[in-house]
TrEMBL record, chain A:
Keyword Membrane applies: yes
Regions crossing the membrane: 291-313, 363-381, 387-406, 418-442
Protein family according to the UniProt entry: Belongs to the GerABKA family.
Protein name: Spore germination protein
GO aspect biological process, one term: spore germination
InterPro entries membership: Spore_Ger, UPF0353/GerABKA_families
Compartmental location: Cell membrane; Membrane
Compositional bias ranges of the Polar residues kind: 12-21
GO CC aspect terms: plasma membrane
Keyword Membrane: yes
UniProt keyword list: Membrane, Transmembrane, Transmembrane helix
Membrane topology: Multi-pass membrane protein
Region feature (Disordered): 1-21
From TrEMBL, chain B:
Any single GO CC term annotated in Swiss-Prot or TrEMBL for this entry: membrane
UniProt subcellular location: Membrane
Name of the featured protein: GerAB/ArcD/ProY family transporter
InterPro entries: Spore_GerAB
Sequence intervals crossing the membrane: 21-39, 51-70, 91-116, 122-143, 150-172, 192-213, 225-248, 277-299, 311-328, 340-358
UniProtKB/TrEMBL annotation, chain C:
Protein's name according to its UniProt entry: Ger(X)C family spore germination protein
Species of the source: Halobacillus litoralis
One Pfam family in the UniProt entry: Spore_GerAC
Family the UniProt entry places it in: Belongs to the GerABKC lipoprotein family.
Keyword presence, Protein biosynthesis: no
Length: 503, 369, 360
């Protein structure tokens, strides 16, 4: 394993060497000519020059309407003339080979006076092929904004900027990935955010060693404080409104080109159980739903382990009235509870995986057919008890109540150690497993901030928006977790000004 | 010169410190352990139903001792190791510190074996202790290796989880005989003082302040919280005692080894009966801070005295606890260990005033010179 | 790499070695009721019933398996039954334990000691004394849809809500061990096709020494604890009146020196009159006053009878000694026991009839 890691470290150096080989512009052009979609020809109209671009990356409208017409109608002799005459924004003259390479690859048009010239003019004509902004599917909400991020970074930034028309909204960009050079943006609001958080994020992003970056989830895994933890340590969301409210709280957001998910950090474990719906409903309703969700998560993780523990070791705990039901449902089952539970849990996971890989409509059918048909058949055949079937189905259902998909996966899996613990030492085993996970959560950090935050370190102020959500006028301060530079959200004295009757 | 040394020896980076509020949880969770599940029996044997007075007296004494500990630490320049070094010099001081280390280890060890005993008696008579102890100590190692902040977190969680268990006291009160509680004192002062000693034994744990004091941010402010912690513990014990007195008759209580667990038996909900299984499982949360903080305190002393890596000391101590824990079996031996650690704890508490006097004298001498 | 292997090894060792020998619920024979009788040759005869849960369809019909063994002690009964059972015996859910009157008159101390020590048992378990053979009582099924244990458990529990004072293993042990307090247990009797709670059995330590019939239970409970339900029929002017208790309060007070204490038991009873059989008068406040007087008279008489019975048999189920102990610092048990038979107990009953003659 270590050997493999060492190889990984050596790789980037060799990549850098190959890059250095294309030292001059002509060599670059030679290299590009290998590709069929690289267009490189000499223009012989009024202006004589060499024009090169990637036809798959360029917008032909800009090329035909603005560039070629200008070049053909007017006679331009220097690159600077071109820069002034061509009616496209942000045209620049440069001879920096690195810049030229990068820009051409993104779809800039490169014009040289002569083939051999080192100095070129670069005209941006990137064609943006992108999906339209659509409604969020993973984090759907009934009320509230219905825009979701898409795969284009600029569109995503646009979605954020239009919600926060602030000069302080700062966007830092960097390229990550030795091969892919993916654009990654760090977004924060100056004056609210704690600079040390931004520094940590930037430092960690810069430290990323990877060849190509497909999605933001790569970043979650790489820059996580503890990458062996099953818990995601950066919140990922596809809702621009959620990102914006996080930015306003003083968090840092990371956007990745090609990924329809934004990451926000630092985050806490309770944040994963809060839905954006919670803020669109009156606070007491939202609180109730949050608590239901929390209960659902606890139920989902603990119900089958408790079933194993109680049925295997502690049957004194079953009340006499329930005893008949449970015993008669189990009476013909040939397997011990642990085996029964593991088989059924795995069957549910199987259905879920199968459903997730299939197209939506077939997926649903598979879920229903699998759930109902296999379930009843298994009970009829006497392989599982119907009490357990109910418990497993409910706990599977409960694991779907988490608003963030990533934590849902965690919850699906962490119940298995609990089941093993239950089989080992009954309730004591379950409790030991729980201690381990609580200890783990206490140890975890998100960008250097405690992950288990409103609970430990206990911060009563942050508990106002953790398991419960108090009304907005009670939340006049930003969460303590971020150590924001400006802690006040609004003027509390004005918010809570007391009015007399009839005033 | 000495002062310079002090600040150099105990410069703990700020991100390892905890805020003063947590002293409440640290002190309380360390004081409440396995003892509370069955301490009533020992009190009643000494002072009958008048033992509630002993609990109050013990609480008062502990407040005084806590005050002394703070006096000791205020200008002691750090922890007990530093104080020992200043008063007794490097070698004798180091030796005394190691005695503390042994005492802390014994405390952690006592808790481990008593908890295993509870599980063996109440849940799994055929428990494979060598596996269970291994997993338990592995868990402890995992938590202790997280450092003091993680242990503080465990203390906090343990208090939060322990509070609902306190609510279960309602059931025995409902089933009990409230007329048993009547303030008539029928025992002599010596009886009550004997019971006071017994209850101080179950109150042990605040002496750990001597070792984690440098980890508290603004330690002066933590004084208040420490006293709250001791007060809260006294109240919890008082409630336990009163509830047990209501639920059991005096002679019956002398038969019952684990009063609180027996009382859990009558807790019934429509979906669950026989709450003692849940109670014992939950008690793991209450017991863990005891073991973790005990082990942490015990291993920090060698680190401070010999400058060795605490990581390795923890592993060593885990192993040192593991083998005796597997070998010890049976009520008499466990009782003996409990008595031993109680006796030592008593001496440690008595040693604190002595140390305070010695320290004041040595400070005065030093000032003159 | 090495570290990972060691870790994997440990996990598998823990999983393989750590598992407790276990049997899931349905593989156990869950004993819910056990009865003890006097057997032959100084041995005891134990009877258990094990409910047989069938497959889900006929959940309603409860079938039971009865096993009877001869054994030397109550602990031995478990061992002997194990020999007859196809599944391991689990006594964790034991809900009712019955002793025949014969065995209770011999001494229950040994079995009680076992009960108080076994951590598997529930403290809410009911104990009962059977007037007759507990084997017969267990083995005759009473209802179609309930097991015997559930039936008897329900029977005792229901009665504790009404006329019978609260009872359980814990209550028994409390009084058994307490100084100046003696336990009591419900008495069950099998009639032709049903079982009834026929009275209270009073114990001196583990020994059954006295019993009173079910007509006196109400008075006993009234003296023993506060309660809100329960009925009692009382004779009045040649007829019978059914009185329903809607709240009674009992208050003990102690006066005088320890050598010669004087107890006052004040009972305040609020009652409704439901039925008047054989009384040819109209309900009126005057009649109510008369009834109240008669009731007070009746209850005072009954209570005095009970207490003189207790004194005669030297039992103290009301816990007067225990009460004195909590009130007087210098309580001495032997002295108390010597004086018990001459103890001055004054019962003052106050009856208030709140409703009468309401027809619904």
């Amino acid at each position: 394993m270590w050997k493999w890691k060492r190889k990984d470290k050596q790789q980037p150096e060799s990549v850098q060497q190959t890059k250095k080989q294309s030292g001059t512009l002509s060599e670059f052009i030679q290299a590009m000519k290998q590709s069929e979609d690289f267009v490189h020809y000499e223009l012989s109209g009024n202006t004589r020059c060499t024009i090169s671009y990637l036809k798959t990356m360029c917008d032909s409208k800009i090329l035909n309407r603005s560039v070629l017409t200008t070049l053909n109608e007017e006679s331009l002799h220097t690159l600077h003339d071109m820069k002034e005459r061509i009616p496209v924004e942000n045209v620049r003259v440069t001879s920096k080979i690195n810049l030229i390479e990068e820009k051409v690859m993104f779809g800039y048009i490169m014009i040289q006076m002569h083939e051999t010239d080192e100095e070129v003019v670069l005209i941006p004509s990137i064609s943006l092929e992108s999906r339209n902004v659509s409604i969020p599917e993973v984090e759907f909400s009934v009320v509230g904004p219905k825009e979701a991020f898409v795969e284009t970074l600029n569109t995503n930034i646009n979605l954020i900027r239009k919600r926060l028309p602030l000069p302080q909204l700062t966007i830092k960009e960097m390229n990550i990935g030795k091969v892919s050079k993916t654009r990654v943006c760090v977004i924060y609001i100056n004056g609210i955010v704690n600079q040390s958080n931004v520094e940590t994020v930037e430092q960690r992003l810069k430290g990323i060693e990877i060849d190509h970056l497909t999605d933001s989830s790569f970043i979650t895994q790489i820059i996580a404080d503890n990458s062996n933890s099953p818990f995601p340590q950066l919140l990922d969301t596809e809702r621009p409104d959620r990102v914006v409210s996080n930015l306003v709280e003083g968090k840092v957001a990371i956007l990745v080109e090609g990924s329809p998910h934004a990451l926000t950090c630092p985050t806490t474990v309770v944040e994963f159980f809060g839905a954006s719906d919670d803020y669109f409903l009156p606070w007491h309703l939202a609180t109730a739903f949050r608590l239901i969700r929390l209960f659902a998560v606890i139920f989902s993780v603990l119900s089958t382990p408790l079933y194993v523990a109680v049925l295997t070791y502690h049957h004194e705990m079953i009340p006499a009235a329930l005893m008949a039901t449970i015993v008669s449902s189990r009476s013909d089952i040939p397997f011990p509870p642990i085996l029964e539970v593991i088989v059924l849990e795995l069957a549910i996971e199987l259905l879920r995986e199968a459903g997730a890989r299939l197209p939506t409509k077939i997926g649903q059918t598979i879920g229903i057919v699998g759930g109902i048909v296999i379930g009843t058949a298994a009970v009829d055949a006497g392989l599982t008890s119907n009490v357990l079937l109910i418990i497993v189905a409910l706990s599977a259902l409960a694991s779907f109540t988490t608003p963030v998909y990533q934590i849902g996966n965690t919850i699906r899996l962490i119940r298995f150690p609990f089941i093993v613990g239950a089989q080992l030492w009954g309730l004591v085993g379950v409790s030991m497993c729980m201690v381990f996970f609580i200890g783990h959560l206490i140890k975890l950090q998100s960008i250097g901030r405690p992950f288990f935050e409103p609970l430990y370190p206990l911060r009563v102020k942050d508990l106002k928006d953790a398991f419960i959500r108090l009304p907005f006028n009670k939340q006049t301060e930003r969460p303590v977790l971020m150590r924001t530079e400006d802690t006040q959200r609004m003027n509390p004295s004005r918010v809570n000004a007391k009015r007399d009757i009839d005033e | 010169m000495n002062k310079l040394n002090n600040s150099k020896g105990l410069n703990i980076p700020e991100n390892y410190l905890v805020t003063p509020t947590y002293v409440f949880f640290l002190i309380h969770s360390m004081q409440v352990g396995v003892g509370i599940l069955g301490f009533e029996k020992y009190l009643v044997e000494k002072a009958g139903f008048d033992a509630w007075i002993s609990v109050l007296i013990a609480g008062g004494i502990l407040h005084i001792i806590l005050w002394m500990i703070y006096r000791l630490l205020q200008n002691g320049g750090g922890d007990i190791v530093e104080i020992h070094k200043n008063i007794f010099g490097k070698y004798l001081g180091g030796f005394l510190s190691l005695l503390f280390c042994a005492y802390f280890t014994l405390l952690a060890f006592t808790v481990v074996i008593t908890f295993i005993e509870v599980i063996k008696v109440w849940v799994f008579p055929g428990l494979h202790v060598w596996v269970f102890a291994f997993v338990l100590l592995f868990l402890v190692y995992y938590l202790v290796s997280g450092g003091f902040r993680v242990i503080t977190g465990v203390c906090l969680i343990s208090v939060i989880i322990g509070l609902p268990i306190l609510l279960l006291k309602y059931f025995p009160v409902e089933a009990g005989h409230t007329m048993n509680i009547f303030p008539v004192i029928s025992h002599s002062v010596t009886d009550i003082l004997g019971a006071t000693k017994q209850s101080i034994l179950s109150f042990l744990g605040l002496e750990f302040l001597l070792i984690y004091y440098p980890f508290i941010k603004n330690p002066q402010k933590s004084k208040k919280w420490a006293h709250y912690g001791v007060f809260f513990t006294t109240m919890v014990y008082l409630i336990s005692v009163l509830v047990t007195f209501v639920y059991y008759s005096e002679e019956q209580l002398k038969q019952v080894v684990w009063g609180t667990i027996s009382a859990w038996k009558i807790v019934e909900f429509p979906f669950i009966e026989r709450f003692e299984f849940v109670g014992i499982a939950m008690w793991l949360y209450v017991v863990l801070p005891n073991i973790c903080l005990g082990l942490w305190g015990a291993t920090r002393i060698p680190k401070r005295v010999f400058n060795v890596k605490q990581k390795y000391v923890v592993i060593l101590f885990c192993i040192a606890i593991y083998f005796p824990a597997v070998l010890i079996d049976g009520r008499p031996m466990i009782d003996a260990v409990n008595n031993l650690s109680g006796q030592l704890g008593m001496y440690v508490l008595m040693y604190i005033p002595v140390l305070l006097v010695l320290k004041t004298i040595s400070d005065k001498v030093r000032k003159r010179t | 790499m090495k570290k990972h292997w060691i870790f994997l090894m440990m996990v598998s060792v823990i999983l393989l070695a750590g598992c407790m020998p276990s049997r899931s619920v349905e593989e156990n024979a869950i004993v819910q009721i056990v009865g003890y009788d006097v057997g032959e040759e100084e041995r005891m005869r134990g009877t258990v019933s094990i409910p047989q849960y069938g497959k889900s369809e006929d959940k309603q019909a409860a079938s039971e398996l009865y096993l009877t063994v001869e054994a030397d002690s109550s602990k031995d009964v478990e061992v002997e039954i194990q020999k007859q059972s196809s599944k391991p015996i689990s006594i964790g859910k034991l809900a009712v334990t019955l002793y025949s009157k014969e065995i209770a008159e011999k001494d229950l101390a040994d079995t009680v000691d076992v009960l108080s020590r076994d951590p598997r048992l529930s403290r809410n378990m009911f104990l009962g004394i059977v007037d007759g053979s507990s084997k017969d009582l267990i083995e005759s099924g009473y209802t179609q849809d309930e097991t015997t244990s559930k039936h008897l458990q329900g029977l005792i529990e229901n009665n504790t809500l009404h006329n019978f004072p609260s009872t359980s293993l814990h209550d028994f042990l409390y009084a058994y061990y307490a100084e100046g307090m003696d336990p009591f247990l419900p008495m069950l009797k099998k009639r032709e096709s049903f079982v009834e709670l026929s009275g209270v059995a009073f114990f001196k330590k583990g020994l059954l020494v006295a019993e009173v019939p079910d007509t006196k239970i109400f008075t006993f409970k009234m003296l023993k604890e506060n309660f809100v339900k329960g009925m009692q029929d009382l004779p009045f002017e040649g007829g019978t009146i059914m009185m329903e208790n809607i709240g009674s309060n009992v208050d003990y007070s102690l006066s005088g020196p320890l050598e010669n204490p004087k107890f006052t038991i004040k009972v305040k009873l609020k009652a409704e009159v439901n039925e008047m059989a054989g009384i040819d008068r109209k309900a009126s406040p005057k009649l109510a006053r008369e009834m109240e007087e008669k009731f007070v008279e009746y209850f005072n008489k009954e209570a005095d009878e009970l207490i003189s019975l207790f004194k005669e048999k030297d039992v103290d189920p009301l816990g007067l000694g225990n009460f004195t102990k909590t009130r007087k610092g210098d309580f001495d048990l032997t002295q108390w026991q010597d004086n018990y038979s001459e103890l001055d107990v004054d019962v003052q009953v106050d009856v208030e009839i709140t409703e009468y003659g309401i027809f619904s």
